[in-house]
Amino acid sequence: MDVQPGRCWCCEKILPEDTAPCDRCPMAVYCCTQCRDRDNVRHSAMECEMFGEKKCSSCSTLGKTRMCSACNSAWYCNADCQRRDFPAHKKTCREILASIKQISSNLSRLKRHGYDDFPEYFGNTMAVDFLQLENNEWSGKSVGKKQLGRDYHVLSAGCGDLCNTVLTAASLPNKYQGKLHVTLNDLDLFVMARNVLFLFMLVRFAETEDIASSLTTIWYSLHISKREYDLIKTSLAELIRMSARQLHDATKGLVSVLDEELGYLRQVWKGWQSLECRRDNRAAINLAQQRKDMFENSDQAIKGSRSKYLACLNANDRKQMEKWFEHGLFLPCEANQRDIPFDNPTLTAIEASKFTAQFGSPQLQPSVLLHDYDLFVYRYLMSPRKTPFAVWDCLRVKEHTSGSHSSWMVMYHKYVTNLMQKFKSFIHEGRLLIRVSLTSCLDFPRHHQSLQMPNYDRIFTSNLADYICFAKLLQIFKPLLKSSNSYSVVVTEIMYFYLNVPDAYPGKTLPEPQRRKLVLDCIQDFPALTPAQIQNKIFDYHNTTSHFLRYLRAEIMAGGFDIPALQDVPSFESVKKCQGMQMRDFQKELNKFVPFQHRWNVRSLTSPPPGCRAVEWLLPKE
Ligand SMILES: C[S@@+](CC[C@H](N)C(=O)[O-])C[C@H]1O[C@@H](n2cnc3c(N)ncnc32)[C@H](O)[C@@H]1O
Ligand SMILES: [Zn+2]
Ligand SMILES: [Zn+2]
Ligand SMILES: [Zn+2]
Ligand SMILES: [Zn+2]
User: Fold this and answer.
1) Pfam families, alphabetically (predicted)?
2) Distance of alpha carbon 412 from alpha carbon 495, whole angstroms
3) Which residues of 562-597 are buried (b: 16+ CB within 10 A; e: fewer)?
4) What's the mean per-residue pLDDT of the chain?
5) Which of 14, 74, 242, 293 could be bridged to 246 by S-S, CB 3.0 to 4.6 A?
6) What is the pLDDT of residue 60?
């Protein structure tokens, strides 16, 4: 499922009846032969390599082969071929095992921590639909009445902002009639305060014209109109006075928060309420200036990644994005500065590292905040490389806003507003129920008990695997999966695995023949690229599956978070059964929620690290 089922592997449009399949692998299908030809170079370097028939490393026959289970990097027709090749293969095979051990030992020394100075107000990976019923429970059979009306339970651990929840509710098939229960877990107080504020506003102002559009603006825009500012002010004033019970009633059952956690959220709301946001006032927070300073003071890596991003866009897109980086506006149409006289208080927070300096804790401590919050200053705290364009798949945005829009800002605003409208109607029908869990996911199981929530059909752990080892995530979440649903799944994602594996990053360190091949492939498809642009684009031509296998084996070997380290390198087969779960084999293209690997070059504006990988885990079959 690197491309959604039923879509062309090149342009990702819905497939017509007559299709053009790839003749070398069983997976890729195109809408026409032009698309197939256009994708030929990239696809043969990537998916065909991964899913197609393999050449025997001994006799070079193409056909059904078995992988060398020690190194996962050689393929053989049979045991005889393997034995014959062993003297030649031995050295490579051992080197790979040694490299896995080395990665493992580096990983166990690596200090991972979950906090960041920048709250995840915009999200970072591409938004996912948590349910995708048509790929899962509803796939392949006629859907009965009971199926149409059943409820689903989803846990989003390390949820960040609301993008996934909004996309899920907005993507539900019309005939679905059940309710969706979502538990939002994140340890970041500010992110959660913002989520609850937005949910409250959607109910409180459901009758207000254009509330969906206003909320889209408030989500992403540095400056807002008086009307939007007043909506925020009114909501904050009301929220601050509410008990958990009252919040539940005021949102008609949409939002459930424990009283203690509401106390922490209230502090953030008070902080936002107290800010002077009128831009013409000299005492105003002046977000534009703060944002500018933040970028100027950011390190070379951030500046570099922003300019690399810009360099890869076409001239027109680049001009528009430069404008966005300059003004930070996200509005339904081009506007006059006079019409947006307020700073957006919900884009501010307190720096996590300030807490660390003062209280020596690696994470935001709600109880500390509760007592000492006025020691700290609320300021603009968005990572300088964040944009509203990164999480929404730009292919879908184009598809849904076709017509004559001159600007990406207007198109994206329209797209998100449309999702928000659907989200609002779904809420209005009383079919969305949200429970808030403000805690580290490591403590979540204890928390789960007080939430009075059945087990989950889906558990999404965002990119927590960047901070917490896979085995720990599975150990925590396996007992919380709904065992009666064979589609129940834990989804794990990792954004930065490639930084830990030699040669996974196609940068300057890749051995020359390999790098040359990548560059040549890439240039065949994009003849006019500058060297800087190539650096980013070649990710789409670099098949890192075997590197990722090494990483997984090393990572599980390293243990961590009270999971003991292993003496020997675990085989990939045993990794697939980590913590008694059953991994969907991404080498056979079996992921059903998040592609193992996205194609980033077709998604221009959507640009998280191209090395993102997703792994999906099921309960073992009886
Ligand atoms: C990097 S974000 C990704 C969010 C999501 N993928 C998105 O794009 O919107 C990860 C979130 O996990 C949260 N987080 C980090 N460590 C956590 C932990 N141990 N428990 C719960 N949340 C955690 C962070 O506060 C952050 O909001
Ligand atoms: Zn096509
Ligand atoms: Zn193919
Ligand atoms: Zn052979
Ligand atoms: Zn081997």
Assistant:
1) DUF4470 (PF14737), zf-MYND (PF01753)
2) 24
3) ebeeeeebbebeebbebbebebbebbebebbbbbbb
4) 91
5) 242
6) 92
Question: Tokens 């002010």 map to which residue?
Answer: 233
CA distances from 8 to 30, 34, 39, 412, 532 (A): 4, 11, 10, 23, 29
- Three-state SS for 501? coil
Residue 368 in this model has a pLDDT that exceeds 60? no
Mean pLDDT in residue range 426-451: 92
Cβ of 557 closer than 6 Å to ligand 1, yes or no, is no
Give the ligand with the smallest distance to the CA of 35.
2
Instruction: Grade residue 415 by pLDDT with cuts at 50, 70 and 90.
Output: very high
Q: Kindly give the distance from the C-alpha atom of residue 175 to the centroid of ligand 2, in angstroms, as a whole number.
A: 29
Minimum-distance ligand 1 atom for the alpha carbon of 495: 1
Residue 362's pLDDT is what? 44
Kindly give the pairing relationship between strand 348-349 and strand 379-380: antiparallel
Tens digits of per-residue pLDDT, 260-289?
A: 899 989 989 999 999 999 999 999 999 999
DSSP state of 14: B
pLDDT score, position 116: 64
Q: Are strands 223-224 and 342-343 parallel, antiparallel or unpaired?
A: antiparallel
Q: Tell me the β-bridge partners of 433.
A: 181
DSSP code string of 214-281: HHHHHHH-SEE-HHHHHHHHHHHHHHHT--HHHHHHHTTTSEE--HHHHHHHHHHHHHHHTS--BTTS
What are the φ and ψ backbone dihedral angles of 394, each rounded to 5 degrees? -65, -20
Instruction: Taking each helix axis as running N to C, give the angle between helix 211-220 and helix 189-204, from 0 to 180 degrees, rounded to the nearest 10.
Output: 160
Q: How far is the CA of 59 from the centre of ligand 1 (A)?
A: 48
User: Parallel, antiparallel, or unpaired: how do β-strands 255-256 and 432-437 relate?
Assistant: parallel
Q: Tell whether ligand 1 has an atom less than 6 A from the beta carbon of residue 214.
A: no
The side-by-side arrangement of strands in the sheet containing 432-437 is 255-256, 432-437, 180-185, 152-157, 458-460, 489-494, 613-618, 582-583
Q: Does the Cβ of 186 fall within 6 Å of ligand 1?
A: yes
Q: In this predicted structure, what is the pLDDT of residue 337?
A: 84
Pull the structure tokens for residue 317. 């897109």
Q: Is the pLDDT of residue 370 over 90?
A: no
**3-class DSSP state of 148:** helix
Number of Cβ within 10 Å of residue 263's Cβ equals: 16
What confidence tens digit (pLDDT) does each residue in 202-248 have?
999 999 999 999 999 999 999 999 999 999 999 999 999 999 999 99
